[in-house]
Every structure is written in structure tokens, then in C-alpha cells.
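---------- Forwarded message ----------

FYI, see the glycerophosphodiester phosphodiesterase record below. Original note from H. follows.
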Amino acid sequence: MSYTYMTTPPNATHSFCSLSLSLSKEEKSRTFIKRIGGAPAELNLSEMCNTRALGLLLVSALVVLHCGVIAQVSAQGSNATSRWQTLTGDPPFVVARGGFSGIFPDSSSIAYSLTLITSAPSVILWCDVQLTKDEAGICFPDLKLDNASNIAQIFKTQQKNYLVNGVPTPGWFSIDYTLNDLSNIILNQGVYSRTDKFDGNGFQILTVQDMARQIKPPGLWLNIQHDAFYAQHNLSMRSFVLSVSRSVVVNYISSPEVNFLRSIAARFRPSMTKLVFRFLGKSEIEPTTNQTYGSLLKNLTFIKTFASGILVPKDYIWPVDESLYLLPHTTIVLDAHKERLEVFASNFANDIPISFNYSYDPLTEYLSFIDNGDFSVDGVLSDFPLTPSAAVDCFAHLGKNASKSANLLVISKNGASGDYPSCTNLAYQKAISDGVDFIDCPVQMSKDGVPFCLSFINLINSTNAAQSKFNSITTTIPEIMAGSGIFSFSLIWDEIQTLIPQISNPYFKFKLFRNPKNKNAGKFMKLSDFLEMAKNANSLSGVLISIENAVYLAEKQGMSVTNSVMEALGNAGYNKQTALKVMIQSTDSSVLMKLREKTSYELVYKVKENIRDALNQTIEDIKKFADSVVLSKESVYPLNSAFITSATDIVQRLQSFKLPVYVETFSNEFVSQAWDFFSDPTVEINTYYEGAGIDGVITEFPMTAARYRSKLVRKQTSLCLYGAGIHFVLKVC
């Protein structure tokens, strides 16, 4: 068979100018980003392209479109009549810290602009205010300018050392420069674990007034982190805030300093501008009261005398233990609501480790703060505002019985192997409870001819075989794999049952580990037991059986894995029922050809290589032995430097020959996804389904995919996911 294999130029880059989407040439030259509803937030694409093109294009330019209406309780409503357990009964706010700072440089025009097209219509843009030498207020994420800009390269010899909260701190500070001095300073990504591909693209520092005028945010939040520091240098943050509020609508002002908020409290009406006291670490000292923030938390009545709300780190609400598992939630939200204080939670980002309870799914984390049955925070502060926007408008209040809508099959990869050791009873039980359609069993053979489920024929991959008494039977079999292993057919089934399962950790080099508490939990299953479990699960649509190394096993070990599979299916009665569909998968066309003669089960051909096209004759040949195809993710969207470089049409080509296409492997860890998906596995799934039109996902985290295609997500939301990329803009709702 002839494929066109994936070849990505080593230095492939995207020009920001090449964004085609569905805009006309005239529309693209006029403006790139427009807010949906309200005044446009203009970003002149032609001017940007003429001066300096972005190094790489953010392919999934977006994922959220306002497309419906939810009946919302007014601000005067009560929790008795609202689905929302916020103070007012309204949906929680999404506050974008520095705009979409998880991707673009914090507080840049493009970070703010991207927020408006990817987030809820009520999104609030957050500006960390710093003061310049000539008392201009700028939006910049830190007191020091050198971490998130190129100032150290422009003013190389001007590093200073100041006391910040009593601590000597070296760096480049805004108080040493006029606004004109900073006019040529360029914003960069300040978090080193994030992509730097958008650095050096001419994003200038914005004043508060410039940001409000250019971006026209639906809501504006000014955070005043260091009033005391500026006062020491004869700069008045109070004067600036009072002055700017005369020309700019400011919805929220926050500060961790009691004295600052007290000094401005009388000048603002809560109906127009709400003051929010920001809590820092519980052991840190608040400078005005000389109390710890932990002790101030016990006196919310005092906070109420000068503030309308509080902003707390998320672990104030949902603490975690030393092992990163959730502890019971605190009563802080309920306590604050009793005092009529709004509660905002901070420190949300999609690209940091979160509690293992969330299975690396940031959407699940947000939902635990806004839809847990006990309370809802009034807003969240996030570097990735798209995800909380989807949580609020698409996924909250779905309930466990939400019906399926999208015509997208969810197929497990070794069960829910992101949560439990692969192919164990617990992994399969979790997949079923998560709402998977098909559970999968990669069939291996024991020495005594027992077919059982295991992710790979080499026992070392998913068991403690190398540390067991069987380590002496390590052998090398080039026909199966490079290097040595302990193979399933070297042990009888009773011996295999003595091995301890080990959870897979494909991203351990990034120090991202899976569910440590259950890393050795569960038991391996014979194929017969697996089939019986599937029959007893009323929610399943079927099973997927994978057969590999059949030729070697037949020729070298005298075992027929295909016969064993067919016999097990027959003994379990699968050949006499229609309730559960059976799919049999292999990368070996000869196996599928042989099965074609014996069975009417759906035969699935798995393409091992990354491909981008196939000849008509090749596809015709595939149809002779297969009913559907499994492709890799990169066959659909090729990557370079963790960015999507293009979109192939291989899915459409195969489907045009009536071959459904399933794609693998979807994982929740943010490092498993292209930057284009905003470190959100739901965005990735949406893009493959709506953008490429795939028929199914093969995933290690079935809950994420099953929740995505829920009917209620489409039917009762004011936001719908919207897939967009270099070559497509496809509406989901």
C-alpha cells in the first residue's frame, strides 16, 4: 500500500499574516479580532504583518462563540430561584489575568484581544497596575519589568536594587522610567514553561487608558499590588486610581493592602466599582494591620467595612494534601456570602499540575468551584479564560444523566488508563462509569494459552516483572521489538496474576505523574472476564479487541491469537447477540483478511505511521479487509515545535470511501497537546471532531471526551464550542 508519509520542514513557521480562517481578504486587512457583540476590539493585521510577523500561528484561534440564550436570574435575584449558588444568583464571572496570558505575553494587546473572542461576553480583563516615574499607570504583571519584557536588553546597565516588603530586590523597576522611556520596550512571555514563540513581536506596554480605549473590555479589573512600595518613592497609586476612574469605567479594584482600599472606599460606589480585598499566603503579613492573611480570614466582618468582595487563592477553598489530593472544601465561600461578600478564586492555569482528583482536566477543576452542589464562587481569575468560560456557559449543571448528542464514539485506551493501571478491572470500571462507548482489550497470550488484556506483549511495560522473580527470563525478540523484554507467552496465567500492575506515566520526564495513590491498583483480566464485564455494563455500545504479533505467535510459539479471540467471543455469546457491537483491530492487514473470511464483526485497520494522504488504490485495498481506520493525531494535524503546521484531508479522504476514522491517543496532560489547544483537552477533542470531522476518539481519559459530546452542552448553553484553525472555521452549535 502507498501512503504519503508525514514530513514537516525542520524550520517550518507560521506567519500571523497567513491566518486564513473564513475571513475575506478585505476583512483580514481591516481587522483581525472583533468582539462578538458590542464595539470592536481592533487589531490591525496588515500593519502587524508589515512590521513583524509572528513566529508561529496559534492555530485554534478559537473555540467559543456566543450562540444562544440562557435564562439568567437578574442581579436582584435570589439563590432560591437560581441554578447558581453565587452571592447574587448570577453566573460566575471569568476574570482574565493579563488577558489570555497563558499563551501570549501578559497584558499585551493581543492577549487582551484574544480573550474577547474566546471567552464569555461578560469577561473581565485584569490589569496589574504599575506606576512610571512620571506617574503613568501601565498594565504589567509584576513590579519588576525584566521578567516579562526586553528591558534588560535595552537598558543593560540600569538594574537597581530596592526594598520590596522589606526584602532587597534587584531588577528593572517602572519607577525609574518615564512612559516615553518605555515606549520601545517589548512584552515577552514571563512564564518560562510557556511558549516563547510570540516574544519579540512588537507588543508594547499599554497604559490603563490605552487598554480601555483600544480593547474596550466588557469589564475592567485593576489590581493594585504594591501601593506601599510606590508611596515610599513619592508616587501615589490612590491619586492615579481616582484620576483614571474619571475617564475609564473600572468595575473592580483589588489590593492586598488594607490601607489602600480604606483610602479609596469613600470615593467609589459599590454599584459602579467594587473593591476587593486580595488575600495572599496565609502566613504572610498584611502591612496595615500587621496580621497574617490567615488571621484576617477569620474576621470577614472587618473586611466588609471597606470591601465588597474577597479574592483568595484557590487552595483557601479546596485545599490539597502533600500528595496533591483534595481535602474537604472549607466554608470560606459560604461564610463570605453570609457577610454579603463576593468570593473570587485565583491561581487558575491550564498548564500547571493540579489535584490528581481532576485527572489533569482543567475544566473539571473549574466545575468543582462553580458547580459542586454546596456553593459557587462568584468568579475565577485565570490565565486561560476560554476554559472557565466554557465551564460556566457550557458544562455547568449538566448532571450525570446528560444524554449523548455529538455523533462521536468514545473508545477507551487500555481502559481509563490515565487514572488506573492499564487493562485492569479498575481501569475498565472507571471507563464505563465515565461514559465510554467502547472498552478495549489488547489481547496477549500466556504460556498456557490464556488470552488476556494487557497494553503490550512485553510485561515490563505495565507490570513489576523486571523487579520480580521472573527477571531472569528476559529475552530479545527483534520481530516484536528492539531491546529485551519479558514476554507474556513466557509465563503461565497463574504466574502473570502474581505480577503487580503499574500505571503508565508517559510524561514522567515533565514530572507529571498519574494517580499515585492507585499506581498499582487493580487486577489483570482474562479476555473472557473482560467480555463478561462488558455484557453486564448496560451503558456500553460495544468492545474493541486488538490483535498484534499474530504471525510471530503462530509461527514461533504455536499459538493462534485470532482463534482464541473468536472462541472467547463465541463462548461469551457475542456471535448470537446484537446489543453490543464488536470491533477487532490490528495493524496487520493479513490478520484482518483472515478474519474477514470468518466473521461479520467490524474490522479496524490501525495505521502505525503518521501519514498525510493515501492513494485511491490504497484506500480501495484497505476496504477489502477493513471497515474503519485508526489514525494518529499527527496524521490529521501535523506538528512542528508543538504547534500545528497544517491540516491534512486524510480523514475526509477515508470517509469518502465509507471508512469511519478513529483517532488516537488523546490524553489530558497539557504537554500532550499542541499549544494551539490552549492546554485544554476539551478544546483538542472539539477541534478534531468539528475541524477534522473524525468519527471517534481513543482516549486514556474517557470522562473528558464523554462530557464533551453531551447533548445538554449543545442545547442549553449561551456559549458553544467553536473549532477554528488555519484552514477551517466550523460551527459546533
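H. also flagged this: Residues 561-571 form the longest helix (11 residues).
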